[in-house]
Amino acid sequence: MATTEAPGQRGGDAGARVAERLREEILRGALSPGDRILQEELAERFGASRVPIREAIRILVHEGLVTTVANSGSWVARLTLAECEEVYLMRERLEPLLLRYSAPHLTDADFAELQSLAARVADASTAGDVDGFLRFDRQFHLASYAHAETQQLGDLISKLWNSTAPYRRAYVATWSSDLQRLANDEHHLLIETLRDRDIDEAERVLAGHIRRTRRQLARHPEIFGGES
């Protein structure tokens, strides 16, 4: 059985820098699900040898952003609607647990940061700034998990977020003002339940927040190319 090298063992800083650039391009939609990733083109573009390019791809495969098929090549990861729903069902159950690990340790400074991020999410929604919304929304949720000390759960949640990022982008672009307002209200409700140290209720709010997105995504199969 072949072994998989951990990201970062080869390619060093150059591979990490290439991965950072590609990650940013995938998350902001410059590269779309299913786009082919050619090592030769990347090597020329970044002025790098094959070793850091292979390391960059390995990092992004580990993060759930790229899929590699042996003897075929690499592509930006893509999901069917059914696969995306499965990912959201996992998030719906696992993220409240991650929040439970973090919640007791949130400080006044953390709550101030969450309030600031929630305000930025709301401002981006009002301005129709999809990139800003996605960036600040992700920062908001990850900030609420910041104090969770786990061996695997945090990395898994990050990978699940990555795998659905392109589809969330397409979905958020369709939002009505009512959906924007609801998402913002849920963020503020989550902050209040966390501030009150009502962790059970915070878990319920978060699970409902994720569930609503899953159900709304299911109403837009066109985002997945009509796949189900």
Automatic annotation (TrEMBL):
Keywords: DNA-binding, Transcription, Transcription regulation. It comes from the Bacteria. Residues 12-79 form the HTH gntR-type domain. Pfam families: FCD, GntR. InterPro entries: GntR_C, TF_FadR/GntR_C, Tscrpt_reg_HTH_GntR, WH-like_DNA-bd_sf, WH_DNA-bd_sf. This is GntR family transcriptional regulator. It comes from Leucobacter rhizosphaerae.
